[in-house]
């Protein structure tokens, strides 16, 4: 089955810096890659997703890049703010009605 | 995106008892999912709940321990049976929207502690 590795497990940055979280996947049939943000006491919130027919997708300060050949994808957050502090999860699936496989999560801490 | 409500939001239970968690969605959805998130850990899929058919369980999870109901397209329940301290976790409901299962949106979960 699919295996998703996520790095780093924790990431500390200063407000205004950029943050990058990386994930690799094992199943070359995977074609859908969402990212979730989970704040304390809340459920995971979908923040951005990408399908394998594109290499990059942006939404304001957040971007995701995908390298299908290397089987890795990354989340980029620019101009970080304290409210970006949370646990971020990447996931992968084969799309359609396939299930999601999650990475182990990255705790992002943004210091003022 | 769909609005997903889970009840209860948290509970403390005695070992050996059972608890039923409810998940209500504000629109009709085909696929509903139940996940477990152990403290400080990632999300693990328990089962997929389809309306009108039996739930599909992932490896390591069985119907006797985690019976699921899906009576209509907006509601599902997960029961955690004969609970032990190892069942202390966050239980999350999610729904698939759009194309097939994706994207999935989650409720805020049920925080369960077993004494």
Flag low-confidence runs of chain B: none
Count of individual helical segments of chain B:
0
Q: In terms of structural class, how would the helical and strand content of chain B be classed?
A: mainly beta
Question: How many alpha or pi helices of chain A?
Answer: 0
Mean pLDDT of chain B: 93
| Biggest interface and residues each | A-B, 22 and 24 residues
Query: Are there runs of chain A of 5+ residues with pLDDT below 50, and where?
Result: none
Strand content of chain B: over 45%
Could you say which overall geometry of chain B the principal axes of the C-alpha atoms support? globular
Rg of chain A over CA atoms, rounded to whole Å, is 13 Å
How would you characterize the overall build of this protein?
The complex is a heterodimer of chains A (112) and B (115). Chain A is mainly β and 112 residues long. Chain A has strands at residues 4-7, 10-14, 19-25, 32-38, 45-51, 56-59, 62-67, 72-77, 86-92, 101-102, 106-111. In chain A, the strands form two sheets. In chain A, strands 2, 4, 5, 9, 10 and 11 form a six-stranded mixed β-sheet that branches. In chain A, strands 1-3-8-7-6 form a five-stranded antiparallel β-sheet, with no helix packed on it. Chain B is globular. Chain B contains no helices and eleven strands. In chain B, the strands form two sheets. In chain B, strands 2, 4, 5, 6, 9, 10 and 11 form a seven-stranded mixed β-sheet that branches. In chain B, strands 1-3-8-7 form a four-stranded antiparallel β-sheet, with no helix packed on it. In chain B, 36% of the residues are buried. The model of chain B has no long low-confidence stretch (mean pLDDT 93). In chain B, a hairpin with a 5-residue loop joins strand 5 and strand 6 (56-57). The termini of chain B are far apart. Classes of the chains: A mainly beta (112), B mainly beta (115). Chains A and B meet through strand 4 and strand 5 of A and strand 5 and strand 10 of B.
